[in-house]
Give the backbone structure.
Amino acid sequence: FAMRNICRGVLLTLWAFFPAAQGFCPGAIPQQHLLARGRLFLHPTGTAVPRTPELERNRGRAKSTVCGAHASLGWAAESLNLAAGYSELKNQVLSDEINAKVTLILQLGLTDTQLALAAVAVLVVLTYCFSTPSPLLGAIDSVFLRALDAGAEKSWGPDDISPKVGRTLGRGTFGTAYEAFVSSEGKAKLSSAGDDSGRVVIKRLTEDGQGEIEAYFNRRIRRIGQPQHFASFLGGSRRAGDMPGSDRLLVWRYEGGRTLEMFMQEPSFPLNLEDYVIFRNRMEEPPGPPGTATLERELPKRTSTMVRVGGTNTLARDPAAAPQAAVAGGSRTLSRGVRGSETLSAPASGSAPASKSLFSFIGGGNDDDELRSARVVRKVLQETLGALRAMHAAGVVHRDVKPANILIAETKQGNAARLIDLGAAVDLRNGFNFDPEKGLLDPRYAPPEQYIVPRDAPPPPGGLLTLLGSPFFWAKFTPDRFDTYSVGITLLQMAVPQLRSPATLKTVATQLKDAGGDMEVWRERYGARYDFAMLDRKNGAGWDLVTKLVRPRGGPERLTAAQALGHRYFSGNP
């Protein structure tokens, strides 16, 4: 009985919110909806309108409609225990004549089995169409959005870029990115995109084929409609003009010239990101060189002194704390990594008070720096996961998530942390740039399986079949977990000061392999030399998130980007 009413309720809901579906089974359309659309031909007084020739010609369909309307009201009343209200509504809108006809043709309505099958079919179709990576949205993107986006894109060429090329922003496997300035022609195009800064980022690709791949994914991501997560792509050109070498040029708006990795190499990380991440709504464009972001307010002046703790350069906010942090004849080592240990050990030649964390120790007991740092790290991680959630929903896997590919934007618009460098991405809606035999990865951040799907997985058939089969492929192989593993490593690196060195992180990858990929085992074996204070806040919320992201295949599933965003690490204060 309950299942029958659930199925009927599903159909009634679908017909109420999706009028286009009414033609699927007109015999079960709710009477209220029919009356609203003028389909029952009732007089305002409640009496039946005399039959017209058109109504006579469609008598069978009309009877079925009236029967379904009567039955639908009965089901709603039965399910919601609104029998009194139903009776009143029926008396208002149905004449005795129609009631009699409904009684005579009741057997012509849908049976419970037919209703159940119809409800299940509709639910299955809707679930399939909108399941990741949504074949329906993929078809719309391929047929309509791609053409519209191509028509709106401006063509950028060598004449749009000034011969004066600025600093090198980054070098990758497939090309080099530069800061550049636009010519008068380029300035008009840039202004049409709402940017009067006069600066852009250009990338010279070493291979034309790779240029096509990166241009494809930048356009693909642009059509997702969430520009706050990604660098703003302007277009490309077949030739690089005055740029030496290759014949491929890609152009983005200039939104920042430094990546998360660059900020992490500074001893003041993560507090050096606070103005960009936490106070970005106070940023403005000052007079002078365009694109240089500053703050509308004057920040408190902080002096800093470099100290060395546990072999790591660390910034002490309070100069008075530096003599306490410096140890004559040696350096301090942390035992914080072992659970239950919250002290800093020191050689006999120096004395040090007990401390909860490295931050409070070097800051003269000031836990405020630790709180501010935790807030910055959490915000960067949250925005990175948000970008991945948008990509994965569209069927795109980045495959190279790491601090060097997270741009820290200097503009007020959008997020501070934005994913860049899409040359290694793969589109699993159509199989673009996907080869099960090939993997592109950074061993410091990539998961142990090294491939987004097993190497023995069948290659996508291509064309429409790949689009139609993409939800099943995605559900079976969960390729998005490849990216979330890298996010977990990035969180670990941001939160643990001793891991911000690339060489140290490479050692961690080896140690983690020795521990079988189990983060708890790794921490028990090697954690004594690291400071996990930031991850242990809020009853270990950060550490719990790391363990659920950094885990090998074959055991409990890694969290997806959407699931990670729902973790308790992101709730309340850091």
